[in-house]
Amino acid sequence: MIRFLHSKSNVPESDATLLAAYRAGEGVEALGRLYERYVELVYGVCLNYLKTEADAEDAVMAIFEQLMEKAKMHEVQHFRSWLYVLAKNHCLMQLRKPQHEFSEPDFVQFEGVSHLEEEHSEEQEKQLRECIEQLPMQQRSSIELFYFQEKSYQEIAALQKEDLGKIRSFIQNGRRNLKICMEEKVEKLGN
Question: What pTM was estimated for this model as a whole?
Answer without folding.
Answer: 0.50
